[in-house]
Specification:
homodimer, alpha/beta, UDP-N-acetylmuramoyl-L-alanine:D-glutamate ligase, nine-stranded mixed beta sheet, four-stranded mixed beta sheet, 10 helices, 13 strands, 37% helix
């Protein structure tokens, strides 16, 4: 069994399209370091979504992308028809260092490489995807994919401080085209100017997306929804190894867990309750990501571990 | 009606004894400042507990303590038989300033005054109190009160970084005599040397108290209990005015809400579920405290507001 099943839903899960970066990362943490490890927003998000729903990746890699890394994505049945191989250069490369306590990180090197010329192209069979995750890339590329998908898709996006600072207007235009915006606490403050996260969440909804999720890392996440506010603590991680990809795998698992619940072949209109349920799974999948470099723990965990942690988290937050 | 009633408990609530400081504070926040406002760990904790249970205060004030501040405590039926008035000096005085975002504070002045000679004395009728909150004071005084109360009391204590740094061994001796230890995140790290709060919580339990609550301010609180881990988000405060007393009113309301549930005249043995329920009320009472200087909002709120926020918080955390 490659995917979770949902006790209340016997239908086929909806499909999740993921667009974002596929990268090789060099990562230095207070405890260890790793070189040329598989990373990028699309890698983490697609692997996370693949535990729940048929997953379709849109991205680009260069001439140096290793067959065994392609095999890792294929092993989880991720559709790679939308993954371009650009032979004119190497794969996107990021080098970063985390500070003590992992609360900040510095980008030491960034080489866009083939990603600089990336123009997402959607294979025809991707276009009926019920869910689209516009992972962290330039907002113009996120909008390009959003536009190619039509009105019936449930569109979610993530971003980072770089785009808030350098492509502010393009990002605001994107926000008006989204159903769901996922963002972390410091970025929410940067984008809204609100230091109070409750106010920041409401301010983000006023910019367009009907639904906003603000992530607080080890402190959990808030959901701002027309039906109300929801707060979910994080799964208690005792051995934090590398936070890279936590947000991307959160978002990927979130859409995957929505896709299970709303099912294939119908307009995706998840309820407040379904989004809360999906956040539970997104939180535990992110907790797996941070327990190892790259997608290692995310890949090795398996369905039983995800289900076990989801049960634990549900028990842990029940008053 | 001066106290909450509990839908599942028609018995009389148990009694809560509170020992700690009664103080006049000068407080400077990024938005406002206040002078000679009623403060101290016992004031906040007793006012908070008084919404739930008969509350008995042990403390000392000086010759300058204003009749109208005594009246504030009496107005909530707090038993002041254990409040000594020492005519030889002024009341304990603290002056502090909060930084931008309220995440740190500096002590600008501290004058112990009559508090320096304080030796808690328990009126005879206090000694059958089912619950005792040993609020933030010197651990030797906390132990003195604990010893005067016998074995059947449920003893809880709070502390601050000052005592962790200056009276470490005395504090460790206190921990071995507690049922419940309440501490905030930075103090938990300081006392255990663990930067991971989950590990810190377990390490604190290993030092003696069967139950440990680690508070994370706006990020909520963890409960470490023999039956498991519980995580509760904070009530979403939009207008933070002055965080002083949040921890003390959390602890006071916590014991008060336990006292309602376990009832008078029997050994207080709250269950995991009862402690979780009490944390819900403790969280909302703390949220009221921080919305104004001193105990102003805590006093003006009333039972209906506490119950309303408790219902909101319960809804907000339900998956």
């Amino acid at each position: 069994m490659k995917r979770l099943t949902h006790p209340r839903h016997s239908h086929e899960p909806a499909a999740v399209l993921v667009v974002g970066s596929v990268a090789y990362d060099d990562i230095i943490t207070p405890r260890a370091s790793g070189e040329r490890i598989l990373g990028g927003s699309a890698s983490y998000a697609a692997l996370a979504a693949s535990y729940f729903a048929p997953t379709r990746l849109v991205g680009v890699v260069g001439h140096d992308f290793a067959p065994h890394d392609l095999a890792r994505l294929r092993a989880r049945d991720i559709d790679l028809a939308g993954l371009q191989v650009d032979p004119t250069g190497p794969t996107f490369h990021w080098k970063g260092r985390y500070h003590e306590n992992f609360n900040r990180r510095d980008t030491l090197e960034i080489h866009l490489n083939v990603f600089e010329r990336f123009r997402p192209q959607l294979p025809e069979h991707y276009k009926n995807s019920e869910y689209a995750l516009l992972g962290n890339i330039h907002p113009a590329l996120q909008r390009h994919v959003r536009a190619a998908l039509g009105k019936n898709v449930f569109a979610a996006a993530d971003t980072i401080d770089l785009w808030i600072k350098t492509t502010h207007d393009e990002l605001l235009a994107l926000l008006r085209e989204l159903d769901l915006f996922v963002i972390n606490d410091t970025e929410a403050e940067l984008l809204t100017g609100e230091t109070n996260l409750i106010r920041a969440g409401h301010a983000l909804r006023a910019k367009g997306p009907r639904i906003v999720i603000v992530k607080k890392g080890e402190h959990g996440a808030y959901l701002f929804h027309p039906d109300g506010l929801f707060a979910l603590p994080a799964y208690p991680v005792v051995e934090l190894h590398d936070p890279t990809g936590a947000g991307d795998s959160f978002a990927g698992a979130l859409l995957g867990a929505l896709a299970i619940q709303t099912g294939a072949g119908k307009p995706p209109t998840p309820t407040f309750a379904q989004i809360k349920e999906a956040m539970l799974f997104a939180t535990v999948v992110a907790s797996l990501t941070v327990e190892a470099f790259s997608c290692d723990r995310l890949e090795s965990a398996g369905i039983a571990e995800i289900q076990k942690r989801a049960n634990e988290l549900r028990a842990m937050v029940t008053v």
